[in-house]
Design goal:
single chain, mainly alpha, 74% helix, coiled coil
Length: 81
């Protein structure tokens, strides 16, 4: 009668261990997926920063005063006045 009790003890210990192993495997996979996604987003952010710098350089380099006429509120009244 001692053997079935030991067998039951072994089965009762192995079930939680197997559950933990499954959870660890799942978490390892999840961490790897998150790491890959983080790497992708880091590259995208770096690319977006470069694009923003180029846009800022273009805006600073362009001379906007040529394309915009000066506004005189006394002579340039909107049509509804």
């Amino acid at each position: 009668m001692t053997k079935p009790k030991n067998f039951d003890d072994h089965a009762s210990f192995s079930a939680p261990i197997e559950d933990l192993q499954v959870r660890i495997a799942f978490l390892d996979d999840l961490v790897e997926q998150l790491n890959q996604q983080l790497a992708i987003q880091t590259r995208e952010i770096a690319d977006l920063k470069k694009q923003m710098q180029l846009l800022y350089q273009r805006v600073e380099a362009s001379d906007l005063s040529d394309g915009i006429a000066p506004f005189d509120p006394m002579s340039n009244k909107p049509p509804h006045y």
